[in-house]
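Hi V.,

You were right to ask for the full record rather than a summary. Here it is.
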Amino acid sequence: MVKAFTALNATPGDAAPAHLDALKAAETRLDAAVKGIANDDVLAQALGSLNQDASTVQAAFNDVLADINC
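Predicted structure:
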């Protein structure tokens, strides 16, 4: 997914700017969530938070792909 995101940033083509912005924001939130996991965090709590952020990234990525495939 990271490679696809990097490629989209390099050549966004027909992707709607709003969808690209949403994807970038979601990726930034996921990255911050990953970096924010403390060594003493309970795995279940960390996974719950990361799953939600990852789902947001996936949804935003799907929106961008839909723009490109239209």
